[in-house]
Structures are given as structure tokens and as C-alpha cells.
């Protein structure tokens, strides 16, 4: 009997020694933390906000659970995309594939096609999934089978940003109001009014009217404009795109941007419209809610003339078509790449922590983005979150939340060549507009009147030519 | 010696050496690790690897810093040229640098070059700031013209259309041109805060500005030692900047590149140094001559900024390149980054790249090995210990169990039942013991049963020299007739004392096997015989006593029976001998004694005629008769068959015994048997008597004498009694001796021959020699006795053979020595009725062929002479055929013999020769013989001539040959004729 007990003791002892190495559920070991690398294209305030949160995570949860997050900004979406693809494809000189990278659905889709994207559905409970805004979650469902390959962290919309200081001067003199900016027709009208008002400020200099408005994202304008007019330009099903580019819709879009641009009512000279605001070129633009953080505090009309300005945020002007309540859903999500179990687990842990309501609000507020959960995407919740925010931020978030809640958020589904197709939309109209405007400006300098100078570009033929060209380009992406 | 060994349990016996072995093994392991210095080497190795990594990374960094980032020469030349050209063409003056908007065109013109340089140099930013004024004299509010561009991802390919470029500082016109986006903190000009107050601007500018002898602008190149941020911007960067100097020495601005913290971070991945990203890179500066490292930049996944602020690193003074922190928590390796020229303005900043980590991480490998070794050491020790305990316990347990079982059994005085241990050898052993025990038990039981069945009382004791206790069987003392011993408290001393007492008091007889038999008198008057024996075996004394009463009594009875004759109930030979021997030791008891030996006559015929039963009866009756008719103290014994001995003793006179003897013989004579056939028969016994002490004092001798006397009777008239006669006995003995000697003589041919010459009566010359036998043995001396005994012993043939051979042999020797006359004949006496065998004759012929022709066979007249025998002798091979007839006239039928033999010589018998000179008859006989002989050509020999007269008469009578003492005596060498005889012969 004694012998048996001895054997038992020995057995238990050996078993204990053997099992020592194995642990509980988490694949993490606080003593040997897992480092996950996150690539973003953030810069400016967004980067600062993101880095602050990363630091907070590392100091708290990360340290406790054994996760070290290192963030690296690639500076721009394009750089990020190029670096990610280079890393995934293993190109010469490329860096290691990061654990998490920010990506739009197009990039995520491309990387997914290379087999490097983790479906994180398995790491989330249904309750957790339900807490996110449905359309955000759906964006990462490439196959339509309910997979989640893009984790929403922060989303932005388009808003109309306004140099309120200079607008107020204009409005005070002309009686223009914010309501005029609610739809596209009103916007164009107001822009004409502003051009004429500013031209009149210097009677001795003809045709020196200023543009009221500019746009950053032409593709959004065309895509959402189509949707508002009841037509989905890129209808995607199973990764295949079907083009719906009707001429009448195209004409309305033409009239909503190209025409006022050629006439000088709209403008785009700086790199981004915020640059135009900074140099006083325009006083309003439609851009990403996230971009409002770049909105300057002063306007430098020249190297020596400058004056402080205030910002105001309004909803995007809409085409009052069949279904005007469409808004663009933008902002990249986070894509988790394949790696060790610990790395994937750590990545999801970080993202969940990052999108917890309070933190999500904090980040959104500081970077001009909107929270991604249903509960956080709420004005009161944001106001009550205790996060300090200035007036401009508050306005952006307020408009953003209303936009999300009052519209159907839309983004094109990923399809092969989606990014290139989008580029056609992005530059197809704006480049032509910029080039033609340059001709008009030249003609004006030669002493022609605006109508004379612009007549060539305002003809139907011009539109037809452009339409056919773009149609042809877009059709190449079909299927 | 053996006592020195401690009494240890088997558990300890197993445990101690095994533990010792384990301990030695462990000690060896520790010693080999400690002395081998493996850990130190591993640690040094880890340091070396770290040092190499740091050096490599440092080289990369240095390469970037000097070869790429700060390599702005071409750009500087370009800017100088552009500025010079603008100045010379009057588009600009030196004052334009200080005027807002004064440099916009220049900057617009330089923008592509700057962007290209930024891309090509792979820096995160590039800046150009114009100023021609002494900084010390500036008021601090003035803003400076310039441009500051930034690329957040300098490592990646430049984006199309400058998309990745942000404008930090640039004139509005540059921004409006739309090539580049502004950053949040964009300003058209550099405020004093961003220029004059910044080291990247002020240090190189003012140093160059103040330096009278302008060096090459590159020598003023300066790396900021701290990170800075532009106002309105969060990015932290370090910068390399150099002054722009016109050929005339005018310092008109600063050109520089910035390296963002993030970018630097990606270039110095601290994590690469150690596993699990535990390593860190530190870019630091040591003031000239100082060991303290002032941190510039930290790339670490594990050390937060806050933590870094609390750390202070020093270069290790002793070993080059080693670095450790003040708290000793971290350590690492440093490699110097040398990019300033020697004695350049900022050469006092000594830059270092340090790779470091927590000590436990740097030395993780050795620590891991230590842990693994330690763990396996402890585990080995533990397993070894447990194993040893287990093995020792398991091995010793069954043995202990057995031992306990044996102990228990010993306490209960039973035989242990040994349980199975499960160990085959031990079980076999214990089974063997059990089996043995059982066998011992069985055999002892069997033995006890046999003993009890044999009704032998056996008892014993055991004593040890070194122990006071004694083991005694309970029946020991009772058997010895001691009833009141307390065995429970018996000590060895008491026991031995009692033993000695018993030995003294009891009558004992030693037995043949060395033991003693004690006679224990019993109360009833009987005796108990106890055989006692003891053996000493080292210190152990074991004794056994045995009741041998029955066997002793039986033995005594057997002895008695053996001493007596069963038939007659008289003593047997043995009994007689014992009794008589005892008696002969006591002459006082014997006094006058006589030993009578009786032999019953006619027993054989009685046995033959009437059978043994009757013979036995005959003997029985005789014995009874002897017993009844002798005095009580007489010892009667039947010796064997029909022989009896009767010893009379205790008499004073021989005569008294003679009377008793006579009365005995009378009684014998009166005994009468009725034979089975109805005839009557008396008892007849021949007897011989020998006297003590007259004849002998020795029993054996007396028995011999009596026997002799008895046999004398037996040979003569049976049924008589005869006393021993010493003379008769001795004669008999002598005869016996002569016979013995005779045979000895025959055997050894102990006989010699003397030769007596026979002379010619006419000439007195030697005619022949007669060979005469001479015997010289103690009792056998005369040839007559020899012949008599030969006749008695039937050995005549041997005498004949011996005489022929030995006489011839001796004579031949004489002949060879020329001691006899060559021509003489040899007379050899032959026995009339004996002859040699043919083979002997042949042998004789071969041996003595030389003398055979001279041999005359002399035959003595016998009772009867066999004619065949004579013929055969005559025919013997090589024989001359000459016979001589000896002793003629003395024997019987002399004439017949003469006729038969036809001898050549006739020897007149000595009785006729004796006194022949005086007896006329004798003379007449001789005359007749001579007459008869001469007629037949025989020669007559007279022998035994002893006187002159006899010779003369013989000569007168006309004999031919003469022999006798008067002429010559026989001798081994025959003498010559005596002078007197010669004279007599010559005088005739």
C-alpha cells in the first residue's frame, strides 16, 4: 500500500513538473510580451491621439497581459497601401508584414486575396460584433458569408467645413445663409454669389472674384451623388462590379462641380482644400470629418497678411434626387494579418480595447473621427464622455453623428480594380476642371469675359466628350 | 575485529553508499560547472554578440548619418550658386534675406532641389533658413525666411506629385502653388522660437558667424543632441545642419535635414538585440572626458520614457565598449559614432550607440542554462533521492519483514512462517530456509520418534565458554540419578561443579570410543549404565549422556557366552585364556599347579560312525565328567573339537594333584555309553600334564608342554595319562630341528665334499679318491643322519642328485687347481635304488663330460637292489659303467648284488677289515673275496685301515687298493699318503 502511495506521489510530482510550462487560456505571457506592429497613415492630431492611446494601452492592459503595441505611421494612405502590399508580397527591401495595418476595403481585399488577412470573427463574441455599427462591420465581409476582415476603429464622413469668420462677413453683406448650402443647387448659387460679391470688392480689377468652395474627394462626390440620384455606380456582387453610369446622372454631377469650377466659383489650388482655406483661396469645402483637425486657425493671405478665423461645420450638400439620404462612409479599418496565435490574439485584444466606447470617443474627438460602436455614436455620449474638445471639434462630431444617424452610410464594396476605378472618378472630372479653368484664367487675363472664356467648356459637346471618355474608362473595370 | 563492525540495518547498508554516490555525482557536476567557467564564458559570449550587433548597427547608422543624411555638399553648392547668381544679377540683395517675401522666388526656385535632396538623402525633413545677422544682436521677435519640408516616410519610395510631403514652413506662394500640402502647424515664416532659439539653427550659424577664419562650411556641420519640435507641431526630431557661407565669408543661412524620432526608431530596432524584443538601443552623448552617457534617443519596446528618465548610463572604465546603468539593472555594449572631424567645432560631443538590456535578458541564455541545469540538478537529486529511498526501502522491506517474522516467532517460540516478499531470490532463500526448517523439524521429530521408539534415554547439555547460561535437557540429571536440580536457575559454574562431583563419585569404565560408561546405583539395587561423551567445538562444549543399561547388560551377557563353550558349558578357549591369564598374574593363588590337556580318543570314528549328534553327546559327557570330577576351583575348558584343558591350582604338593588326576582318570574309565547300535563304549581320553612352576611359569609354554605330553600318549597307548618329560620333549624338538636343517641343506645345497685318497696296494700311488659328504649344520652333522632323515622324509632322490652334482663340482675344482692326481678315479657314493632322471643325467653329462669317464659309481649294499635300476644307471649317458660295490660283506645278499652289479671294484666292509690281522675268519673271508674278484678281473678295496698291522695283513691277503686313516684322512684337499703307510707298502 505504501508502495502504491509512493508511486502515486512520484507520478503526481512528475506530472506537475511537466505541466508547469503550460498555462491558462491566454496565449500571452506578461513576462515575455508579444510585440505587435501597427501601421497607420495617421499624421497630425490623429497620429498624436493614436500614439497617446497606444502608450496608454502599453502602460496598462498591455503590460498586464504582455502586449507591446508599436505604431508606425506611413504618412499617407497611398504609402501605407504600397508598403503593405510590398510587405505582403515579400518584395525586395520591404519590411515585415505588420500585425495590424490600416486599410480601406480595397487594400484589405487585395491583401486578403493574397491570403494574409485573418477573419477575426472567431475572436469576437456575437455580442461584441453587435455592438458595432452594422455597416462598419459589413465592410469587411468580402465573401458575404459574415466574415470580419476589417475591424472598424474610427470612421469619418464628409462634412462641409466653413471659414465662419469670412463667411459671416459675406453673409452679412449678401444675406446668404447656411440653408443655401444644404443642396447642390443652393451651393452652386451661393458660390456664384460669393464670386460676384468678392469681384465687386475691387471694382478696378475685373474678374478677380474668389471661389467659395472646393472639394477634396471627387470620387465620393460622384459615388454618393449617384446614390442620391438613385443609382449605384459600382454595383458589386461577389467581387464583380456592374457599372451604372447614366448620362443624366453624369450631367447633374458635371453641373454640380465642373461647371462652377470652370467659372471660378469653385477652386482647388493648394494640395488639399484645407491648404486653400489656409491661404484664403476658398472659405468652404467638403472634406472628411477627420480632416477638420487640419483646419487652420489663421488665414495667411500672403507671407505678411494674416487673420484668425473660426471654423463651422455643416452637413454635406446633397443632390435632392430620388434617395438623397446617402452619406459616404469612410475611414480605413484595421486589418489583422496572419501570425502566431499570440500575435493575432494580442492584436484583437488591442483593437477591442481601442474601440471601447470611452476610448473610441476620446480618439474620435481628438482626431476628427467618429466612434464605431452604436452606443458611442451618440452626441450625448460624446458630450458626457468628459473629453475636452473645442468648439470646432464639437461641431464636427455633432454633424458627423447626425450624418451617420440620419443617412444610409455608403461605401463601395471591394472589387478587383476598385481602387483604379475610383481614381478615374477622383481625377476624371477634377483634372479636366482644373486644366480647363487654367485656360479660362488665361483667357480672362487676355481680357475675355468670363462667359466668353468659359463658353467652350460649358457646351454639351464638352460634356459628351468627357462622359464618353469616362464611361469607356470605367467600363474596363466591369467584371 | 569483527566486533568493530557496527550492527546496521540493511536499509542503512543500502542507503548510505547509494546516497554517497549521489552526493559525489552532484558535487562533481557542480564542481565541473563552477570550475569550467561555462557560465562566465556564455555571459562573455552574449556580451560579444551584443557588441558585434551594436557595432554593425552603429556602422549602418554612421553610414546613414555621414554618407547619406549629412551629405549635402551638392545642395549647398547649388544653393550658393543660386544665391550668388541672384545677388550678382541684382534680383536680390543681402537685405532681401531679412525681408518677408524677399526670398519667395528663391525658395520657389530651390524647392525642387530641396525636395529631391530630401528624397535622395532619405531624411524625414529638410530645411533652409536665411539670415545674415548676428544672432546675438537680434531682438528675438523677428521671423526668418525659409522653408521646412517633411516626408513622414522617408524609407518608402517618393510618392507621385509630392503627395507625401508636408509643408511646415514655406511662403504662401509656395503653398498656393499647390504642389505640397501644408501641415497643421504651417507658417509662412520661421518665428524666432523656431530658428534663433533652436540649436539646429543657432549652433552652426553662430559658430560660423563668429569664426573669423572661416572653415569649410561642412566643418560647422552639427548634429543636435536633443530632440526638438517646431511650434504647432508634435513631431520630435533631431537635425543635422550646416551654415551657408558665401565665398566672401558671409554667413547667410542654415541648411539642414531632420530625422524624425519615429524614423530613427525604425532604423534602430532595439528589439533585434535580444529575444522577445527585450533589447534596447540608446543613442547617447558623452562629454569629452566624461563617462556618463547623456541619452539622446531610446529605441526600446520595454523601457518607457518615464523609466528611462530614471536611468543613468555609464561607459565601463575597464572594458572597452561595456556600458552599465547606475543601478546595475541593465548592461550593454557601446560603439562610438565618429562623424565629426577631429578638432571640428562640435567634436566635443562624443556620440555613442549603445545596445543594452536587462542583465537577465542579456544573460538569458546562461541563466536559462543555469535554470535548466539547476532544475535538472534538483530533479536528478530529487529523483535520485526518492529512487534511492524507494529502492533501499523496497529492497530492505521484505528482508526486514522476514527478520521481524523471525523475531516474532522467536518470541513465541515457534517456527516462523516466512511470508512471500515478491523478490525471487529472497523468496527462494526463505523457502529454502522454510524447507530446511521443515526438514530439520521432520528429521528431528523422526529422530525423536526413533529415539523414543528405541526406548533409549538420551540427554544432553550445551555450554559456551563466554556465556554463563547452560542448556540442559530436562532428563539429564534424572538420568544421572540426581533428582533435585533446579534447571531454571542453573549456571554454567554450578553445572560444571555438579559434573565434576558426579565424575568423582560414580564408578566409570572407559569405552573403546573414548566415552565413559558410568554405573549409577539405583535404589532397588540395580545398576543403570550411562554412557557419557562430550565434544568441544571452539567455545562450545556439547555433551550427551545415554542410558546404555540394556546394551551394557547385554554386552556383559554376550561376553560371558562367548567365553563359554555352548556344548559343554565349560569355558571356551577365550574364556579359559582370560581366566587363566588372570590367574597367572597371581602366583600366590596358583601355588602348585598343573595343566592337563586332554584329547578324546576315537571322536573321529565316533563321529563318522554315529554322526555328529552322537559326537556332541560324547563331548558333552566328557566335559561333564571333567567338571564333576575335579575340585571346584579347577578351571575346565573345551579348547576345540575334542580337546580339553584342565587347570589344577592352589595345591601345595605335586602329589596332591597326582591323586586328583588319578581320581579323574578313574572316573573317566568308569563312564560308559550305549552306542546307537546297542554296543557299549567307554570314554577314552589321552592326557598330558605339565607342571607349574616346575616345567614352566608361563601359561603358553605349559600349554605346549601339556600338549606335547598328550601327543606322546596319543602316539603310543591311547587313553593314558602322561607327565611331561623335558628330555623327550627336547629330543623331539631336536629331531624336528634336524629335519628342518635337512630341508634347508637340500634347499641351499649346504653340503661340501671331502676326498679320501685310495692307494694302489702295489705302488702306494694314488689310484682314486672317494667323495665323502660333509654336513655342517647345528644338529645335522653326520652323513648317516642325513641319509636316515632323507629316507624318512623320502628325499633319497634329492640326496642322489645332490651327491652327484656337488661331488663332481668340488672335484672338478680340485682338478682345476691340480690338487688331485690327473689319472685318479673318483668314487661317488650312489644310492642303490635311486637314480637321476634322464634330464638330470643329460644335464650332468653336459656339465661334467670331462670327468665323467673317471667316475666310479659306488653302490652301498641295500636290502634289495633293483636290477632295472642298476641297468639304468649303467646306461646313463656318458657313464663309464664302472661300479664299485661298497661295504661288501656287511649287508644282505652280498653275493646276489655282486652278480647283479658286476662291479669293477669290490669294497670290503669295514667290519671285516677291523682287526683283520687278529681274526683268522676275517682273513679267510678276504682271501675268498680276493680270489673271487681276481677271477672276474675285479679289484678289491679294503677301507677303514687304521693300523699298520691291518695294512700289512691286507697287503698279505693280496688286496688291490687301500683306503683308511692310516694311509690318509679325507680332506677338502686330499692329503698325500702317510709316511708310515708308504714305508709299509714299500717294505712288502
* Strand neighbour order, sheet with most strands of chain B: 27-28-29-30-31-32-33-34
Cα(first) to Cα(last) distance of chain A is 79 Å
Main β-sheet, spatial strand arrangement of chain A = 2-1-3-13
Q: How many strands in all of chain B? A: 34
- Fourth-level CATH superfamily of the largest domain in chain A: Periplasmic binding protein-like II
Radius of gyration of chain A: 26 Å
Structural class of chain B: alpha+beta
Give the termini distance of chain B in whole angstroms.
Answer: 120 Å
Helicity of chain A, as a percent range: 40-55%
**What is the assembly state of the chains in this entry?**
heterodimer
Counting structural domains of chain B, the number is 4
Give a quick account of the main beta sheet of chain B: strands, pairing sense, barrel closure: 8 strands, mixed, barrel
In terms of DSSP E residues, the strand content of chain B is 15-25%
Please tell me the total number of domains of chain A. Answer: 2
Query: Radius of gyration of chain B, Cα only, in angstroms?
Result: 80 Å
Taking the sheet with the most strands of chain A, its summary is:
4 strands, mixed
Strand tally of chain A: 14
What is the architecture of the largest domain in chain A at the second tier of CATH? 3-Layer(aba) Sandwich
Largest interface: A-B, 46 and 45 residues
The CATH topology of the largest domain in chain A, please?
D-Maltodextrin-Binding Protein, domain 2
Essential attributes:
heterodimer; A: 479 residues; alpha/beta; D-Maltodextrin-Binding Protein, domain 2; 2 domains; 4-stranded mixed beta sheet; 13% strand; globular; B: 988 residues; alpha+beta; Beta-Lactamase; Alpha-Beta Plaits; 4 domains; 8-stranded mixed beta barrel; 7-stranded mixed beta sheet; 29 helices; 34 strands; 22% strand
Structure description:
The complex is a heterodimer of chains A (479) and B (988). Chain A is α/β, with parallel strands linked by helices and 479 residues long. Chain A has two domains: 34-155 and 331-404, D-Maltodextrin-Binding Protein, domain 2 (3-Layer(aba) Sandwich); 158-328 and 417-475, Periplasmic binding protein-like II (D-Maltodextrin-Binding Protein, domain 2, 3-Layer(aba) Sandwich). Chain A is 48% helix and 13% strand. Chain A contains 19 helices and 14 strands. In chain A, a hairpin with a 2-residue loop joins strand 6 and strand 7 (240-243). Chain A is globular. Mean pLDDT of chain A is 86; it is low at 8-24. With 988 residues, chain B is an alpha+beta fold. Chain B folds into four domains: 49-364, no CATH class; 455-553, Beta-Lactamase, CATH 3.30.450; 564-724, Alpha-Beta Plaits, CATH 3.30.70; 736-987, Alpha-Beta Barrel (TIM Barrel), CATH 3.20.20. An eight-stranded mixed barrel of chain B has the order 27-28-29-30-31-32-33-34. A seven-stranded mixed beta sheet of chain B has the order 4-3-2-1-7-6-5. At the A-B interface, helix 1, helix 2, strand 2, helix 3 and helix 11 of A face helix 5, strand 4, helix 7 and helix 10 of B.
Amino acid at each position: 500500500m505504501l508502495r502504491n502511495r509512493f508511486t502515486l506521489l512520484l507520478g503526481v510530482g512528475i506530472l506537475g513538473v511537466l505541466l508547469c510550462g503550460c498555462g491558462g487560456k491566454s496565449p500571452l505571457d506578461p513576462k515575455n510580451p508579444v510585440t505587435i506592429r501597427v501601421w497607420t497613415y495617421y499624421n497630425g492630431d490623429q497620429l498624436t491621439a493614436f500614439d497617446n492611446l497606444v502608450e496608454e494601452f502599453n502602460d496598462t492592459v498591455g503590460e498586464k497581459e504582455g502586449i507591446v503595441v508599436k505604431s508606425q505611421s506611413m504618412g499617407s494612405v497611398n504609402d501605407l497601401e504600397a508598403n503593405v502590399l510590398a510587405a505582403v508580397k515579400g518584395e525586395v527591401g520591404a519590411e515585415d508584414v505588420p500585425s495590424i495595418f490600416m486599410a480601406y476595403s480595397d487594400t484589405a481585399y487585395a491583401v486578403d486575396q493574397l491570403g494574409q488577412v485573418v477573419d477575426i470573427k472567431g475572436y469576437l463574441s456575437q455580442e461584441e460584433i453587435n455592438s458595432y455599427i452594422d455597416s462598419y462591420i459589413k465592410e469587411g465581409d468580402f465573401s458575404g458569408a459574415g466574415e470580419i476582415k476589417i475591424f472598424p476603429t474610427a470612421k469619418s464622413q464628409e462634412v462641409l467645413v466653413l471659414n465662419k469668420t469670412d463667411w459671416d462677413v459675406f453673409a452679412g453683406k449678401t444675406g446668404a445663409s447656411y440653408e443655401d448650402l444644404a443642396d447642390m443647387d443652393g451651393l452652386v448659387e451661393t458660390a456664384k454669389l460669393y464670386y460676384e460679391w468678392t469681384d465687386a470688392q475691387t471694382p478696378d480689377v475685373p474678374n478677380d472674384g474668389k471661389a467659395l468652395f472646393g472639394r477634396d474627394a471627387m470620387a465620393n462626390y460622384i459615388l454618393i451623388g449617384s446614390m442620391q440620384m438613385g443609382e449605384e455606380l459600382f454595383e458589386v456582387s461577389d467581387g464583380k462590379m456592374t457599372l451604372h453610369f447614366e448620362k443624366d446622372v453624369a450631367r447633374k454631377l458635371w453641373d454640380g462641380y465642373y461647371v462652377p469650377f470652370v467659372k471660378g466659383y469653385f477652386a482647388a489650388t493648394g494640395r488639399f482644400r484645407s491648404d486653400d482655406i489656409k491661404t484664403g483661396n476658398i472659405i468652404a469645402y467638403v472634406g472628411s470629418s477627420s480632416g477638420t483637425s487640419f483646419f487652420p486657425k489663421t488665414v495667411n493671405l500672403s507671407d505678411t497678411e494674416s487673420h484668425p478665423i473660426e471654423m463651422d461645420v455643416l452637413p454635406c450638400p446633397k443632390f435632392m434626387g430620388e434617395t438623397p439620404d446617402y452619406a459616404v462612409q469612410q475611414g480605413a479599418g484595421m486589418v489583422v494579418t496572419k501570425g502566431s496565435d499570440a500575435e493575432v490574439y494580442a492584436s484583437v485584444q488591442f483593437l477591442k480595447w481601442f474601440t471601447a466606447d470611452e476610448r473610441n470617443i476620446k480618439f474620435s474627438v481628438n482626431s476628427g473621427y467618429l466612434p464605431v460602436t452604436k452606443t458611442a455614436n451618440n452626441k450625448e455620449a460624446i458630450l458626457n464622455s468628459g473629453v475636452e474638445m473645442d468648439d470646432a471639434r464639437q461641431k464636427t462630431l455633432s454633424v458627423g453623428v447626425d450624418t451617420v444617424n440620419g443617412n444610409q452610410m455608403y461605401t463601395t464594396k471591394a472589387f478587383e480594380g476598385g481602387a483604379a476605378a475610383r481614381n478615374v472618378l477622383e481625377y476624371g472630372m477634377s483634372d479636366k476642371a482644373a486644366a480647363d479653368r487654367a485656360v479660362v484664367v488665361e483667357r480672362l487675363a487676355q481680357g475675355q469675359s468670363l462667359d466668353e472664356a468659359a463658353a467652350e467648356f460649358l457646351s454639351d459637346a464638352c460634356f459628351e466628350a468627357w462622359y464618353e471618355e469616362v464611361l469607356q474608362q470605367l467600363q474596363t473595370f466591369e467584371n | 575485529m569483527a566486533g568493530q563492525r557496527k550492527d546496521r540495518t540493511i536499509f542503512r547498508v543500502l542507503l548510505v553508499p547509494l546516497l554517497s554516490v549521489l552526493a559525489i555525482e552532484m558535487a562533481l557536476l557542480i564542481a565541473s560547472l563552477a570550475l569550467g567557467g561555462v557560465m562566465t564564458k556564455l555571459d562573455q559570449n552574449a556580451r560579444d554578440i551584443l557588441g558585434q550587433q551594436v557595432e554593425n548597427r552603429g556602422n549602418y547608422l554612421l553610414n546613414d548619418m555621414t554618407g547619406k543624411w549629412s551629405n549635402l555638399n551638392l545642395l549647398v553648392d547649388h544653393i550658393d550658386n543660386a544665391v550668388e547668381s541672384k545677388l550678382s544679377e541684382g534680383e536680390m540683395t543681402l537685405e532681401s534675406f531679412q525681408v518677408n517675401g524677399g526670398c519667395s522666388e528663391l525658395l520657389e526656385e530651390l524647392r525642387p532641389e530641396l525636395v529631391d535632396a530630401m528624397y535622395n538623402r532619405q531624411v524625414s525633413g529638410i530645411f533652409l533658413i536665411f539670415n545674415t545677422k548676428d544672432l546675438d544682436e537680434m531682438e528675438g521677435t523677428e521671423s526668418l525666411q525659409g522653408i521646412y519640408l517633411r516626408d513622414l516616410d522617408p524609407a518608402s519610395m517618393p510618392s507621385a506629385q509630392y503627395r507625401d510631403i508636408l509643408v511646415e514652413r514655406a511662403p504662401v506662394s509656395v503653398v498656393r502653388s499647390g504642389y505640397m500640402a501644408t501641415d497643421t502647424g504651417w507658417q509662412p515664416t520661421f518665428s524666432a522660437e523656431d530658428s534663433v532659439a533652436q540649436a539646429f539653427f543657432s549652433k552652426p550659424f553662430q559658430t560660423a558667424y563668429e569664426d573669423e577664419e572661416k572653415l569649410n562650411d561642412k566643418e560647422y556641420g552639427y548634429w543636435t543632441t536633443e530632440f526638438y519640435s517646431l511650434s504647432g507641431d508634435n513631431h520630435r526630431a533631431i537635425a543635422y545642419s550646416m551654415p551657408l557661407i558665401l565665398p566672401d565669408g558671409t554667413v547667410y543661412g542654415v541648411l539642414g535635414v531632420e530625422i524624425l524620432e519615429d524614423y530613427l526608431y525604425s532604423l534602430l530596432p532595439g528589439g533585434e538585440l535580444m529575444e522577445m524584443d527585450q533589447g534596447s538601443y540608446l543613442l547617447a552623448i558623452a562629454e569629452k572626458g566624461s563617462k556618463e552617457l547623456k541619452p539622446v534617443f531610446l529605441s526600446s519596446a520595454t523601457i518607457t520614457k518615464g523609466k528611462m528618465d530614471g536611468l543613468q548610463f555609464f561607459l565601463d572604465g575597464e572594458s572597452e565598449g561595456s556600458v552599465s546603468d547606475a543601478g546595475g539593472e541593465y548592461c550593454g555594449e557601446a560603439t562610438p559614432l565618429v562623424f565629426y572631424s577631429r578638432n571640428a567645432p562640435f567634436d566635443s560631443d562624443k556620440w555613442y550607440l549603445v545596445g543594452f538590456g536587462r542583465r537577465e535578458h542579456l544573460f538569458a541564455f546562461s541563466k536559462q542554462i543555469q535554470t535548466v541545469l539547476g532544475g535538472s540538478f534538483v530533479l536528478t537529486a530529487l529523483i535520485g533521492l526518492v529512487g534511492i529511498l524507494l529502492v533501499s526501502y523496497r529492497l530492505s522491506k521484505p528482508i526486514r519483514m522476514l527478520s521481524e517474522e523471525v523475531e516474532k516467532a522467536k518470541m513465541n517460540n515457534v517456527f516462523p512462517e516466512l511470508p512471500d516478499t515478491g523478490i525471487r531470490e529472497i523468496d527462494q532463500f526463505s523457502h529454502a530456509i522454510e524447507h530446511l526448517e521443515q526438514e530439520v523439524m521432520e528429521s528431528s521429530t523422526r529422530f525423536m520418534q526413533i529415539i523414543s521408539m528405541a526406548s533409549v534415554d538420551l540427554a544432553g547439555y550445551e555450554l559456551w565458554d563466554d556465556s554463563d547460561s547452560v542448556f540442559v535437557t530436562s532428563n539429564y540429571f534424572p538420568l544421572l540419578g540426581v533428582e533435585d536440580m533446579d534447571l531454571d536457575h542453573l549456571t554454567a559454574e554450578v553445572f560444571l561443579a555438579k559434573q565434576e562431583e558426579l565424575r568423582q563419585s560414580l564408578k566409570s569404565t572407559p569405552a573403546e570410543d573414548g566415552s565413559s560408561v558410568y554405573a549409577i546405583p539405583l535404589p532397588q539395587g540395580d545398576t543403570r549404565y550411562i554412557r557419557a561423551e562430550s565434544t568441544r567445538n571452539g567455545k562450545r562444549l556439547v555433551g550427551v549422556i545415554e542410558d546404555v543399561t540394556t546394551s551394557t547388560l547385554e554386552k556383559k551377557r554376550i561376553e560371558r557366552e562367548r567365553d563359554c563353550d555352548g556344548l559343554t558349558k565349560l569355558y571356551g578357549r577365550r574364556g579359559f585364556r582370560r581366566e587363566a591369564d588372570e590367574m597367572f598374574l597371581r602366583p600366590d593363588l596358583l601355588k602348585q599347579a598343573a595343566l592337563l590337556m586332554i584329547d578324546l580318543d576315537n571322536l573321529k570314528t565316533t563321529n563318522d560312525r554315529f554322526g555328529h549328534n552322537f559326537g556332541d553327546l560324547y563331548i558333552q559327557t566328557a566335559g561333564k565328567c571333567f567338571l564333576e570330577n575335579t575340585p571346584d576351583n579347577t578351571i575346565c575348558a573345551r579348547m576345540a573339537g575334542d580337546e580339553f584343558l584342565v587347570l589344577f591350582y592352589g595345591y601345595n604338593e605335586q602329589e596332591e594333584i597326582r591323586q586328583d588326576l588319578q581320581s579323574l582318570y578313574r572316573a573317566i574309565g568308569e563312564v560308559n555309553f550305549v552306542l546307537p547300535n546297542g554296543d557299549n563304549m567307554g570314554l577314552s581320553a589321552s592326557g598330558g600334564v605339565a607342571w607349574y612352576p616346575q616345567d614352566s611359569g608361563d601359561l603358553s609354554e605349559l600349554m605346549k608342554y601339556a600338549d606335547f605330553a598328550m601327543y606322546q600318549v596319543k602316539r603310543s597307548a591311547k587313553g593314558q595319562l602322561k607327565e611331561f618329560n623335558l628330555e623327550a620333549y627336547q629330543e623331539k624338538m631336536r629331531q624336528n630341528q634336524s629335519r628342518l636343517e635337512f630341508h634347508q641343506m637340500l634347499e641351499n645345497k649346504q653340503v661340501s665334499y671331502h676326498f679320501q685318497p685310495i692307494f694302489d696296494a702295489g705302488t702306494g700311488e694314488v689310484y682314486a679318491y672317494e667323495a665323502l659328504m660333509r654336513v655342517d649344520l647345528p644338529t645335522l652333522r653326520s652323513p648317516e643322519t642325513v641319509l636316515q632323515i632323507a629316507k624318512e622324509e623320502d628325499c633319497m632322490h634329492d640326496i642322489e642328485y645332490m651327491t652327484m652334482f656337488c661331488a663332481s663340482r668340488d672335484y672338478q675344482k680340485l682338478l682345476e687347481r691340480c690338487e688331485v692326481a690327473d689319472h685318479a678315479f673318483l668314487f661317488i657314493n650312489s644310492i642303490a635304488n635311486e637314480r637321476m632322471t634322464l634330464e638330470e643325467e643329460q644335464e650332468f653329462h653336459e656339465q661334467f663330460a670331462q670327468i665323467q669317464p673317471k667316475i666310479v659309481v659306488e653302490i652301498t649294499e641295500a636290502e634289495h637292489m633293483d636290477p632295472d635300476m642298476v641297468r639304468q644307471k649303467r646306461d646313463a649317458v656318458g657313464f663309464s659303467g664302472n661300479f664299485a660295490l661298497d661295504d661288501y660283506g656287511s649287508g644282505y645278499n652280498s653275493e646276489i648284488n655282486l652278480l647283479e652289479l658286476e662291479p669293477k671294484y669290490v669294497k670290503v666292509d669295514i667290519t671285516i677289515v677291523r682287526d683283520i690281522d687278529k681274526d683268522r675268519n676275517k682273513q679267510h673271508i678276504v682271501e675268498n673275496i680276493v680270489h673271487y674278484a681276481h677271477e672276474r678281473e675285479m679289484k678289491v678295496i679294503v677301507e677303514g685301515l687304521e693300523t699298520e698291522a691291518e695294512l700289512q695283513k691286507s697287503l698279505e691277503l693280496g688286496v688291490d687298493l687301500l683306503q683308511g686313516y692310516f694311509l690318509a684322512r679325507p680332506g677338502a684337499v686330499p692329503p698325500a699318503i702317510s709316511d708310515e703307510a708308504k714305508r709299509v707298502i714299500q717294505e712288502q
